[in-house]
Specification:
- The chain has about 90 residues and is mostly helical.
- The protein has one domain (about 1-85).
- The protein is built from four helices and no strands.
- The chain is extended, with a radius of gyration of 16 Å.
- The N and C termini lie far apart (about 40 Å).
Length: about 90
């Protein structure tokens, strides 16, 4: 799809996390959840390659962190369907 639309660009975040060359280092011990290390790595690459903010410090604004924590707390209340099926 992105190759047929000039206004769409593909960024390989999935491949960055799941690439065999990483040996699973961007996953939590359950090998299903992406670790914060993986998220930081993807976002650092995204900012470097896809924005003009290439020279800014590797920091996240406090308001973004607060909103992210709130979102993660809400998401953590959800139950994975696969987990729900486990006795």
């Amino acid at each position: 799809m992105s190759s047929s639309c000039d206004e769409v660009t593909y960024f390989p975040s999935y491949e960055i996390i799941t690439g065999h060359y990483n040996g699973g280092m961007y996953f939590e011990p359950d090998m299903r959840s992406v670790s914060m290390r993986g998220v930081r790595h993807v976002m650092r690459n995204f900012m470097r390659e896809m924005t003009d903010q290439k020279n800014q410090a590797d920091t996240i604004r406090p308001d973004v962190v607060t909103q992210g924590k709130s979102n993660f707390q809400e998401l953590s209340k959800l139950v994975c369907e696969e987990d729900a099926l486990d006795p």
